[in-house]
């Protein structure tokens, strides 16, 4: 688990980049874009551990972030983009679950050039 901080938001995350050598050994090339997983608020990035391993074996880099308490989605989205900048990720696919899907929608609407696609499970949407 690594941690970084932007705009008073701490981002702790799991990144499978250190496992990608296993896919190269199996003859797989690294795929783009990177998948960034945003969990529901009641859990952490650990729920994506097996997914990150499976994706690494197939040549996909994936990052799973931990959400922290927040009140406003717009500043959190701005902080999230700075987090992506720190990781050198220009374009990503977002995978959001529950409230994580709503944050993903805010990010994709606010920064459309940064999000190539989005996957949502049990999405929370604003009526």
UniProtKB/TrEMBL annotation:
**GO CC term, one of those recorded:** cytoplasm
Which keywords label this protein?
A: Cytoplasm
Coiled-coil spans are: none
Does the keyword Cytoplasm belong to this entry?
Answer: yes
The record ties this protein, via InterPro entries, to: AB_hydrolase_fold (IPR029058), Maspardin (IPR026151)
Q: Which domain of life is it from?
A: Eukaryota
Location in or out of the cell: Cytoplasm
Q: What is its main location?
A: cytoplasm
Q: Would I find Cytoplasm among this entry's keywords?
A: yes
Stored PANTHER family: ACID CLUSTER PROTEIN 33, MASPARDIN
Can you name this protein?
A: Maspardin
- The species is Paramoeba aestuarina
